[in-house]
Amino acid sequence: MTQLRALRADITTLQTDAIVNAANETLLGGGGVDGAIHRAAGPELLAACRKLPELRPGVRCETGQARITPGFRLAARYVIHTVGPVWQGGGEAEAQLLASCYANAVTLAAEHAVRELAFPAISCGVYRFPKTEACRIAVETLRSLAQPALASVYLVAFDLEMFELWQAALEDSSR
Ligand code: ADP
Q1: In a mutational test of the pocket of ligand 1, which residue from 13, 158, 165 has the highest number of ligand atoms less than 8 Å from its CB?
Q2: Which end of the chain, N or C, is less surrounded by CB atoms within 10 Å?
Q3: Confidence (pTM)
Q4: What is the pLDDT of residues 120-150, one digit of tens each?
Q5: C-beta of residue 57 within 8 angstroms of C-beta of residue 31
């Protein structure tokens, strides 16, 4: 059974087997956690992302999907890039797409024998997904996935507000 834990940290410093990136569909870097991961991993990460095939011009990963690269200069062996939905009011399947991000990232992790995985709060920054709901979807999705090889999943928050929201979602789901 996978252990789920909230953790307040800069995700780029973690020594888990893999960290998840809240990327955009170009996979060529951006702001927020994406920019931080690219800076910490070094230019090799951008080069590896560029080599991933384009599905359409400029699109290497659809919203809700995931791709994996090495972690390069990070302590983490892999970066799993997933593209969260931009919040558009809730009528554009944002909840299902966010759940897919967590599920697809876990599937890729399992395929690469990842035992410890760390997620940022996907879509909770510039993509404006309501945070409480995003945390609930993440925890519910992660709890529903049986991946015996995956020992620990860390729900990482950069700030105190997000940390408290992760903790509340974990407490709610274990009631
Ligand atoms: P999105 O575009 O998916 O909304 P953002 O990067 O804007 O992604 O924000 C996602 C979450 O990641 C936010 O809660 C933000 O505070 C957090 N975040 C930003 N930098 C880091 C970091 N270095 N480590 C962990 N979380 C981070």
Answers
A1: 158
A2: C
A3: 0.98
A4: 999 999 999 999 999 999 999 999 997 888 9
A5: no
